[in-house]
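Notes from the 1:1 (GR / supervisor)

We went over the backlog. Supervisor wanted to see one worked example end to end before approving the batch request, so GR pasted a single chain during the call. The sequence is below; no edits were made to it. Supervisor asked that the structure be written out right there so they could see what the output format looks like.
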Amino acid sequence: MTQINEESRVSNKKIRKRHRVLRYILLTLAVLLIAAVGYGTYEYYNLQPQHHFINLPSIGKTTSKIKERTGTFNLLLIGSDARPGDPAGHSDSLLLVHANLDNHTYNILSIPRDTRVYMPGVGYTKLTSVNYMDQLNHGIKQGTTEAVAAISQLTGVPINYFAETNNWGFQDMVNSIGGIDMDLPFNVTLTHPWYPQDKNKTFTAGTHALDGQMVNEIVHERDSVPGTDYGRQQLQEAALIGIAKKVGQPANVTKLPSLLGSVSKYLIATNMSQQDMISAGLSVMSDLHLQQQIHYLQIKGTSEVLYDDMLKANNDEVVLDPSQLQSLAKKYFTN
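Structure output shown during the call:
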């Protein structure tokens, strides 16, 4: 009987010891979990637009006195024709985006790539050439920054962020989310495609399920579309909406790592940190109704043949009314 009691005491001691070990493990896990949640909550708090987008950088100097609001910023998207390994690229498309993350509105202004501007030390030339020459002379990042400053001066509003992309990264990004549905506002025929086999392919107005290659081809077409450059701007808008809609689908959450992995290929130069991108993404995804939230703007100039100081020859350029441009920018890009 004594032996049985002793065995029972030893057994109970082992059980209590196991329970203590289990409690220590659970306690340690609980502390780690609380710490992780606390860190995540702190990060999540800091990544909220009203806490994150304050004291913003400003590229370029403007004469206008604009008081920036928390949770809003101006972003310049530059689409480059640079191929992998090129030391510089011409700006193929220029989109100035005013993001108001408080009321979830996004004003997008297309600036014609052939806009006539003054380049210090050179003279008058096209915007697309400014980007190329600045990058060639000062490197990709510094060159892009100087080109952005020129556009800030042109529009009269501060530009907080920029992101320059190339065609091949754009193609990879669309493919990483499994292609997109793109609503074409008019018929498109590929007259100068990147890939020879796509020459003369035609897409009718309406919605098309497209892979990265076809989206890339379509957004660079201008000769066959109404208004040439202005028509191409509409195609770029349709592609951006298609991408945002696809990324916003719950089923595509598993594709986000692949999408993020394509960003390094997609971005040639940017001053946005990963935290900037995540914060903006959290806000966009929290209230996604793009058809109502995106306001797409165009400004039309006059096409003229003028002397280009960079080329030392006459060139087709778009002349914008600077007062009209700055009035439009002030109305839609300052609050």
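Supervisor's comment: Residues 21-39 have pLDDT under 50 and may be disordered.
Batch request approved.
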